[in-house]
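Hey, I was hoping to borrow your eyes for a little while. A protein chain has come my way and I'm curious about its shape. Take your time with it, there's no hurry, and the full record follows here:
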Amino acid sequence: MSVRPAVFLDRDGTLIEEAGYLDRLERLVFYPYSVDAVRLLNRADLAVVIITNQAGVARGIVREAFVGEAHRHVTMRLEQGGARVDGFYYCPHHPEASVEQYRKSCDCRKPQPGMLRRAADELKLDLARSFVIGDRWHDLQAGDAVGARGILVRTGYGRTEEAAPKARLAPVAIVDNLIEAASWILRAA
């Protein structure tokens, strides 16, 4: 099986609007360009993978089953627009979780790269030829740990993050939103 590059997308604040702890489908709102951006990446034969920290599960605010429900809703909405996600990976853990079964330090919670490594193994992806797009520095740190190139978007928490750069972390681009990030990747390819 061939190994292909991927675009790893943070979910909240990057693909969909930041809603704090997303706990109801009516609060799941796509940016107007998100479906188009994913479809462009699909057409370029790049795997598109969602990687998201879901500490709301660890804090007892969100049911873990709802995370799956939200991802099915994202899948349906993307399919309606002729786009697709190749995989969803989420971390329900937090070292200070109020729900004991989720209280742990793990390698999947960004900025740790566990979700990316797992996706690369399961989906046969080339991390060194891949990109991570997110609105938080910890999204890009996870990518940097595996040699993927990072793009910070100014949606969600992105503008705030941009104002406080991380030492030793240099994104390949800082852009306004996901469609600009997708365009940047397609021009660079």
